[in-house]
């Protein structure tokens, strides 16, 4: 079995931390996108409600 150097392990751990940070950033972006979509649906609902009230 080949031994892994401490430097290689530190490099791998650093890469995993970078990946974790990137995933958190991506998750934040997805959450923001979902918030924008929800806001859009709320705006559409408000328009539809006002049009229904106008016709009533």
What does this structure look like?
The protein is mainly alpha-helical and 56 residues long. The protein has one helix and no strands. The longest helix has 50 residues, at 6-55. It is rod-shaped, with a radius of gyration of 24 Å.
Give the SSE order as H and E letters: H
- Contiguous low-pLDDT stretches (5 residues minimum) are none
**Biggest sheet layout:** none
SSE-based structural type? mainly alpha
Name the quaternary structure.
single chain
Radius of gyration: 24 Å
Task: Report the mean per-residue pLDDT as an integer.
Answer: 89
Shape: rod-shaped
CA distance, first residue to last residue: 79 Å
Secondary structure tally, helices = 1
Number of strands: 0
Q: How much beta, percentage-wise?
A: under 5%
- The percentage helix is over 70%
Explain the layout of strands and helices.
Elements: H1 6-55
Structural features:
single chain, 1 helix, rod-shaped, 56 residues, mainly alpha, 0% strand
Short description:
This protein is mostly helical. Helices cover 89% and strands 0% of the residues.
């Amino acid at each position: 079995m080949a031994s892994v150097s401490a430097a290689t392990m530190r490099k791998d751990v650093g890469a995993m931390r970078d990946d974790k940070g990137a995933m958190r950033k991506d998750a934040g972006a997805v959450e923001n996108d979902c918030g924008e979509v929800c806001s859009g649906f709320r705006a559409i609902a408000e328009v539809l409600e006002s049009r229904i009230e106008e016709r009533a």
